[in-house]
Design brief:
- The protein is of the alpha+beta class and about 230 residues long.
- The chain has four helices and seven strands, in the order αααβββββββα.
- The strands form two sheets. Strands 1-2-3-4 form a four-stranded antiparallel beta sheet.
- A hairpin with an 8-residue loop joins β3 and β4.
- The longest helix is centred in the first third of the chain and has 40 residues.
Length: about 230
């Protein structure tokens, strides 16, 4: 496996969660900045109705910071709960993962071709890489909901997306005989944030390296899904 000497990648190899204090600090900073900005605007009689574009943006910024703080707190709690349950499912299974790949539920491609439920809440948020191939997990299923054997995986490649701001963003695409499945990797278990372009690239290289290492290895256990 390609060596990436960084703590975040090592945690994904080990299936370990990052310390939660960094998220707590980020939420606190965003919340304090938002509240302080609101108080400052109110003390100066600021508002969104002055007609000046700069004033309007200045009034919206504090509320954006507060919204970001709340969204980060809720998203982190939600993903930590889902990832922890899915991680327990994966570890209790009969194959030992070599890499844990957390993803968003925002997938692109023919989901039915991969056997993925259309409902967002039923989609996997954790993939594992092991000696058989890639497996996708949900918190509620004891068995993987998707299996992509190495023999079926043609490549893992970059996937360009448009962000909510209209800018280009990068994710990963799993290319198989059934089609192309775009996934947005997350840099850590329990994180609601998508990985940066550099980390997406590191993860792509890590999966490719494991594929090269494991796809020709003898598999005495055979196929994993019933």
């Amino acid at each position: 496996m390609t060596s990436v000497p960084e703590p975040w990648m090592q945690r994904l190899r080990d299936g370990a969660f990052p310390p939660v204090w960094k998220t707590v600090v980020a939420v606190a900073v965003l919340g304090v900045l938002g509240l302080a900005s609101v108080a400052l605007e109110l003390s100066h009689g600021g508002g969104g109705g002055s007609g000046d574009g700069r004033s309007t943006r200045g009034w919206l910024l504090p509320w954006f910071l507060l919204f970001a703080a709340v969204a980060l707190a809720i998203g982190t709690a939600r993903y930590r709960r889902r990832d922890r349950a899915a991680l327990e499912r994966a570890r209790a299974w009969r194959l030992q993962p070599r890499l844990f790949l957390p993803t968003h539920v925002d997938l692109r491609g023919d989901l039915a071709a991969f056997g993925i439920a259309p409902r967002r809440r039923a989609r996997p948020t954790l993939w594992t890489v092991d000696e058989v191939g890639l497996h996708a997990w949900t918190p509620d299923q004891a068995e993987p909901v998707v299996e992509i054997p190495w023999v079926d995986l043609r490549d893992v490649e970059p996937d360009e997306r448009r962000t909510i701001t209209g800018q280009s963003g990068w994710s990963l695409a799993l290319v198989t005989g059934a089609g192309r499945l775009g996934v947005i990797a997350r840099p850590a278990l329990g994180s609601p944030l998508g990985a940066s372009a550099r980390k997406q690239d590191d993860l792509m290289r890590a999966v490719r390296s494991l594929r090269q290492e494991l796809q020709h290895a003898p598999d005495p256990r055979g196929s994993s899904l019933p």
